[in-house]
Design a protein that fits this description.
Strand order of the largest sheet: 1-4-2-3
Structural class: alpha+beta
Oligomer: single chain
Order of helices and strands: HEEEHHHEH
Number of helices: 5
Largest sheet: 4 strands, antiparallel
Number of strands: 4
Helix content: 25-40%
């Protein structure tokens, strides 16, 4: 179930799936309106390009940890909030620090930002803002269902799935 996208070919196939799902709703889209950027591991943060919205994802040890969205005016959400546990109510850093299964990593508020950049793979889906928020929501929901990220939603809402992490 958690087959990770590791190769460029898989990313291309994923992009084709997304385009077909969007087209199935009657929405016009061309392949240039979605770009998938594998920032790798380690990764560097980047600003949200003008006139784009985004889905961002973080992967650790072949497991999606977080998949979220940032509208065209949400650069902080895209660029920095997930690296600082104090930056927002829900973010990757806060989830990692609260996870008792990761206690042996000795993470704290002073080390978490660099740990995320050094140890997680980041894949971003940049989407033309003219496609609108419903397309952004559809892509996020599809990726949630396909990859079932560990730290999405409230713990009680998540399916009981055996986790390696």
């Amino acid at each position: 179930m958690y087959k990770i996208i590791l190769e460029e070919q898989n990313l291309h196939e994923l992009k084709e799936q997304l385009i077909q799902i969007i087209k199935s709703t009657g929405t016009e889209i061309n392949e240039n309106q979605i770009m998938i950027l594998d920032r790798g591991v380690p990764h560097k943060t980047s600003t949200l390009p003008k006139d784009r919205m985004a889905i961002y994802s973080f992967i650790y040890q072949d497991r999606f940890l977080k998949i979220g969205k940032a509208g065209p005016s949400s650069n902080a959400r895209f660029n920095s909030q997930h690296y600082d546990p104090k930056s927002s109510q829900s973010n990757l850093a806060k989830s990692l620090l609260a996870d008792p299964k990761l206690i042996e990593l000795n993470l704290d508020v002073t080390t978490i930002k660099e740990w995320i950049k050094t140890n997680t793979r980041r894949i971003d889906f940049l989407i033309d803002a003219t496609l609108g928020i419903f397309v952004l929501n559809l892509i996020e929901a599809f990726l949630h269902l396909k990859y079932r990220p560990k730290y999405e939603g409230f713990e009680k809402q998540r399916l009981n799935i055996k986790e390696d992490l």
